[in-house]
Amino acid sequence: MTDLRADIRPASKRAVRRRSVRARRPLVLVVPALAGLAFLVVPLLGLLVRAPWTTMPDRLFSGEVLTALRLSLVCATLATAVCLVLGIPLAWLLARGDVPGRSLLRALVTVPLVLPPVVGGVALLLVLGRRGLIGQYLYEWFGVSLPFTTTGVVIAEAFVAMPFLVISVEGALRAADPRFEEAAATLGASRWLTFRRVTLPSVLPGVIAGAVLCWARALGEFGATITFAGNFPGKTTTMPLAVYLALETDPDAAIVLSLVLLAVSVVVLVALRERWIRGAA
């Protein structure tokens, strides 16, 4: 019993010391931290303060807003589906594939994260436009023209949003225990069956988190969309484009649209809160 008490006392003292260290808040760090918090939060509060609350329902349910919102939701969902079909195999290749130049491939995949979206739109236009490297053949052989169409919106959003899915799924694949896959292979399961019944379920939380982030990024895409798909009401005018247009003629409508996008962003972050906490633990 004496030895046990002797062991507990140093442990309790260490815990007290750790709490005291954490309780110290040097002023030189607190002040810029509060300034940074204000820098990020105050502009968002400005939207709430300047919002036309009295006319909010009429503006929110107007034909133009509903059309832009419906188009944004449909295009973002389709872009996310494209990213899932292409991004999950790509993430598996980066995490598990034994291919040369994998580091270079990973860098190329993450380029859209830092590339200005307008540049991405120009690149898509040069490749998939009517005179583009691939687009010219699509137009000549099949009569398919992708720029300035709703399909072009989906392509632009998928191009910008796919890295979010790939990074999330790749991280989940690297953290997954490979012994389960090895056991499935030992029992005679094929590679496709192992991936479908073992690997994919084990990384499903990462897939869901990546898909949600991908969807949110696609919903807020502006630069690549306006460059590659243009701005045609009811056809390519998504919510961010509608905000840009309304800001020039009707600032109150722009605030209402911005609040809708802000609400979607908050919902996404709250939905993924537990994942961020587990990742930081």
From TrEMBL:
Residues 69-272 form the ABC transmembrane type-1 domain. SUPFAM superfamilies: MetI-like. InterPro entries: MetI-like (IPR000515), MetI-like_sf (IPR035906), ModB_ABC (IPR011867), NifC_ABC_porter (IPR006469). PROSITE patterns: ABC_TM1. The chain crosses the membrane at residues 27-49, 69-95, 107-128, 148-169, 198-218, 253-272. Keywords: Cell membrane, Membrane, Molybdenum, Transmembrane, Transmembrane helix, Transport. Pfam families: BPD_transp_1 (PF00528). It is found in: Cell membrane. It is a multi-pass membrane protein. Its main location: membrane. Part of the binding-protein-dependent transport system for molybdenum; probably responsible for the translocation of the substrate across the membrane. Belongs to the binding-protein-dependent transport system permease family. CysTW subfamily. NCBIfam families: Mo_ABC_porter, modB_ABC. This is Molybdenum transport system permease.
